[in-house]
Every structure is written in structure tokens, then in C-alpha cells.
Specification:
Layout lengths: L2 H8 L2 H13 L7 H16 L10 H24 L5 H22 L6 H27 L2 H7 L2 H14 L5 H24 L1
Helix pairs in contact: 1-4, 1-8, 2-3, 2-4, 2-7, 3-9, 5-6, 7-9
Amino acid sequence: MQLASAVLLNYSQPLFLPFIAWIWLGERPAARIFPAVIIGFLGVLLILKPGLGWQGQAGWAGLAGLAAGILAATSMAAIRRMSDTEPTVRIVMYFSVLGTLVSAFPAIAVWQTPTPAQWWALFGAGGIATAGQLLLTRAYSLAPAAHIGALIYTTVLFAALIGWIVWQETPDLLSAIGATAVICAALIVVVTRRQRT
């Protein structure tokens, strides 16, 4: 998959988050959110293209990206729940330890010792990711989960720019329309949440 499409599916959590937050946290979404969610899901279908030659389109990569979006929405709701009793640093520590444990087993199966240059790159990526996670966790503790989740869509714009510069990726028409629909749906969710609060 192209980088922007993969990131967009990974960041489809605002479509799922209102419902997860409703079931788990009791944060009932406004009725005006439902049309936006339908638009967002139609956009996801345009990106995945399930009926247009499955193996030639998103395939398992698309399903993995969509599953990541659902799991990310669940983790955002969990952060919102934990922020009532846990400080930001402790929540990030829980996330890091759990993520390390879950990813350690597959990593061992294909382990290759990094070169010194790769170690520096890994340390840099880890430092930036930790700072980002601390700031994101703090944001979730200060505002409704669905509100913050939708603001993450700036990541898709950066991913599209990087994909275009590094790999000369340009989205096809259906993916571009789908991405626009998903981003517009997320913005509608943000505006609706702001008006309600």
C-alpha cells in the first residue's frame, strides 16, 4: 500500500472512537456524528476497494491498517479512562512495556543486529516517539477522546508528503476521494464534539 493510505487506515480511529467511548466511558455521541461516520466508512471502502480485485488492491495490508485503527481507538478510550487515576508518565510506561512485550516475540524470530548508524537512528526515533506519546497522552487527559483523535489527521498529510518526496507515490482517484471523505468525516466529528461541549 501507499504510505498515505496505510497511515490513513491506521488513523481511522475517530470513526470507531465515538462508539467505543460510548460503550466503555459513557460519552454518548451526538446524533449529528452518525452521518459523518457513514461518510468516513464509505471513504475507507474507497481506499480498501474490496470488490475491485482484492489481491491487487489493499488486501491483507488494508485489513491490518483498519484493525490498527480499531485497536488505536480502543487504546485512546483506555487512556481516557486511565487518566482519571494515573499520571501521564505512568500511562506511557504501561504502553511502552506492553508494546515491547507484545512485539518482542515476533522480533526475535527475524532478529538482525543493527549497525551503529542504525542504533543512532533507532534512539532518535525512540526519543521522538516517546515525546510524542507523552504529549498525546497528556492531550487525552485534558479533552474528550473523540476530539483529540480527529486532530491526528495531520499525520496523513505528512505521510502523503513523505510518500510523494521519497517514493514518488501519488494516490489513485478512488483513494484520493476516500481519503478526503475520511478526513472530512473526522473534521465533522471534531466540530460536533466542540459544539456539544
